[in-house]
C-alpha cells in the first residue's frame, strides 16, 4: 500500500471514529435528566403565599328603647286625675248594655238619690260597694241591693227598670265613677244611710250630704 493510500485510510477511520463518538454523546445527552436551572429551583423552593386573614364578622343588635316594645293593653283603663267630681261624671260613657254590677248599682243610685248632689249619689254607691266587700250583706252588688228589707224600692227581690232619661244617665255615670274608684267619696267608710227626717241609728256618723246622713 502506498503512503497516500495509508493516509486516506487513516483519515477515513478517524472520521468514522469521530462520528461514532458524536452519536454516543448525543444518546447519552438524550438519556440524562434535565437539571433545573437556578430560576426553576428558586420557583420550586419559594413557599406558597399565605392568604390574608379574613376579619371576623360580629353580629350586633341595636337595643330597642325601653318603651318601644311596651304596648298598653286595650282592656286596661288608665287612671285619670279629675279636677272635680262633676268632671269625672261627665267623662263617663253610658253603655247600651251594662253588666250586672253597673246595672244594679245605677238602679240603686237612681231610685234612692236621683236629684241629690253628685256627692250624695256617689255616697249611696259607696255604701253599697262597702257592703258588698264586707260580705255581711251579700256577696255581690246586686245581692246587697236585693237583700230583703234593705231598700224600699226593691219589689219581690227585683230592681225596677228605670226610665232612660238624664237622671238615669247620671246614675250610670256616677256608678261607673264609684266602680272605678275614680273619685274619693266623703262617705268612703259608710255602711248605712238614711234620710235626714228619719231618726238615725246609734252609729258613728260619717257624713251628711244633701238629704241623707251616712254612718259606719
TrEMBL record:
- A GO term for molecular function: hydrolase activity
Superkingdom of the organism of origin = Bacteria
Q: Does the keyword Signal apply?
A: yes
Q: Cell wall hydrolase SleB domain: which residues?
A: 115-215
What's in the keyword line of the UniProt record? Hydrolase, Signal
Pfam families reported in the protein's UniProt record: Hydrolase_2 (PF07486)
Q: Which Gene3D superfamilies match?
A: Cell wall hydrolase SleB, domain 1
Secretion signal: which residues? 1-29
InterPro entries according to UniProt? Cell_wall_hydrolase_SleB (IPR011105), SleB_dom1 (IPR042047)
Q: What is this protein called?
A: Cell wall hydrolase
Amino acid at each position: 500500500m502506498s503512503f497516500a493510500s495509508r493516509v486516506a485510510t487513516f483519515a477515513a477511520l478517524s472520521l468514522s471514529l469521530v462520528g461514532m463518538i458524536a452519536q454516543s454523546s448525543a444518546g447519552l445527552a438524550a438519556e440524562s435528566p434535565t437539571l433545573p436551572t437556578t430560576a426553576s429551583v428558586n420557583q420550586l423552593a419559594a413557599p406558597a403565599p399565605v392568604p390574608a386573614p379574613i376579619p371576623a364578622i360580629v353580629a350586633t343588635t341595636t337595643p330597642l328603647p325601653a318603651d318601644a316594645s311596651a304596648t298598653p293593653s286595650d282592656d286596661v283603663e288608665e287612671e285619670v286625675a279629675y279636677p272635680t267630681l262633676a268632671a269625672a261624671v261627665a267623662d263617663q260613657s253610658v253603655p247600651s248594655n251594662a253588666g250586672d254590677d253597673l246595672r244594679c248599682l245605677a238602679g240603686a243610685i237612681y231610685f234612692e238619690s236621683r236629684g241629690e248632689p253628685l256627692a250624695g249619689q256617689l255616697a249611696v254607691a259607696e255604701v253599697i260597694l262597702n257592703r258588698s266587700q264586707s260580705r255581711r250583706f251579700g256577696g255581690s252588688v246586686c245581692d246587697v241591693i236585693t237583700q230583703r228589707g234593705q231598700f224600699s224600692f226593691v219589689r219581690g227581690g227585683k230592681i225596677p227598670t228605670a226610665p232612660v232619661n238624664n237622671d238615669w244617665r247620671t246614675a250610670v255615670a256616677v256608678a261607673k265613677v264609684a266602680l272605678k274608684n275614680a273619685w274619693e267619696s266623703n262617705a268612703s267608710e259608710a255602711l248605712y244611710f238614711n234620710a235626714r227626717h228619719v231618726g238615725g241609728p246609734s252609729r258613728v256618723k260619717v257624713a251628711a250630704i244633701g238629704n241623707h246622713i251616712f254612718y259606719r
